[in-house]
Structures are given as C-alpha cells and as structure tokens.
Amino acid sequence: MTDPKAIGGIAAGGSPATPPVRPAQSGGAAAFGDVLASKLQTGPLKFSGHALQRIEQRGIQLDPTTMARLTSGVDRAAAKGGRNSLVLVDQNAFVVSVPNRTVITAVDRSHMKEQVFTNIDSALIA
What we know:
It is a single chain. By secondary structure, the protein is an alpha/beta fold. It has helices at 28-40, 49-58, 64-79, 109-112; strands at residues 46-47, 84-89, 92-97, 102-108, 122-125. The protein has a domain at 44-125: YaeB-like fold. 18% of the residues are buried. Residues 3-13 have low confidence and may be disordered. The longest helix is centred in the middle third of the chain and has 16 residues, at 64-79. It has a five-stranded mixed beta sheet with strand order 1-4-3-2-5. The protein contains four helices and five strands; from the N terminus they run αβααβββαβ. The radius of gyration is 22 Å and the shape is globular.
C-alpha cells in the first residue's frame, strides 16, 4: 500500500499539495537585492534615553558626518543580518538595535577601557 501524500501531489486531506517555492533563476537576484537594500534603509536612527545620557555625559559629538557614518554602519549590519551590533565610528563605540534602528548606548575612547560589550552579534567599523 502506498502513502496517499505521495500520489500525484495530493495531500492527506484530498486537496492538492502546495508546490514548493523556488527562487528565480535569472535576473531576479539583482532585483531582489535592490528591493532588500531599499527596505533595510528605512528611517533615521533613534536614540534611547540611556544613549542620550551617555552622549551628553561623555561629550560625544554627533555632527552630520558622524551620523552619516553611523547610519551607514547600521545599514551594513542590517544587510548582513545583524541584530545587536557594535558600530565603531572614529574614537566612539555605539551599540545599536539594528531591527529597531535604535542606538542603545554610546562610549567614547576614554571609557572603552572599562567596558565589556555583551549581547552583540556583530561589530563593524564605520
């Protein structure tokens, strides 16, 4: 006796089985990559209250160039699947929740010697 699930693509309940989804073979990868990149770069970065306190306490300057590099780093982390990333920009380190696009904390060079960065899955230099 044969398994009814294996006969003619009919599922056990008598309805046709859903065919597997296959990736596009040609030309689709570039289009998918473009769409993915545009979706990953959504919205500006946010800063948690803790991060804002640390930035102020430590005198970290967030000029437009630094913000652009930090944002670019978060975009790169997102493209690689990072979730909680350490982004190094010049003499400063930022721990970022990548899916939420939120800076969790910020550390300047003089405080890095005291820090252990935990709960991160990626690190990058922006």
